[in-house]
Amino acid sequence: MKKYKVVIEVVDVKGYCPLYKEGDRVTAENFYFKTRESSNICLHAFVSMSTLLSSFLHGVSAKDLGLSEKEDEGFLECPDPGPPYTKGGRVVFKLRRIPV
């Protein structure tokens, strides 16, 4: 079985996010986040991507998961709707799968 790591990069912040800015990255490999290579991990963002992230790490393509038209790159966003509903905003993440 081929092994992958996934680099999760913030590509857009719509509204206000107290944690992330464009360019922040989080790295996942096997079944854990590589904290020495990562920005802090937002619980809201993690929950929104957890089931898809596991499949992506284990070889299912982003295209098959409905995250992109590409095999090794997909997009997700956190569930915070932003104004007028909350003071926050949505963060768009690019997930890039890299063989290890």
Summarize the structure.
With 100 residues, the protein is α+β, with helices and mostly antiparallel strands. It has one domain (4-91).
List the helices and strands and how they pair.
Layout: E1 4-15, E2 25-29, E3 32-33, H1 43-57, H2 62-65, E4 73-77, E5 89-99
Provide an overview of this structure.
The chain has 100 residues and is of the alpha+beta class. The chain has one domain. The protein contains two helices and five strands. The chain has a five-stranded antiparallel β-sheet with strand order 3-2-1-5-4, with helices on one face. Strand 2 (25-29) and strand 3 (32-33) form a beta hairpin. The chain is globular, with a radius of gyration of 13 Å. The chain starts with a strand and ends with a strand.
Structural class: alpha+beta
How do the strands of the widest beta sheet line up side by side?
3-2-1-5-4
Number of domains: 1
Low-confidence stretches: none
- The span between the termini is 11 Å
Strand fraction equals: 35-45%
Largest sheet: 5 strands, antiparallel
Q: What would you call the shape?
A: globular
Mean pLDDT: 91
Number of helices: 2
Record keyword descriptors for this entry.
single chain; alpha+beta; 5-stranded antiparallel β-sheet; 2 helices; 19% helix; 35% strand; globular
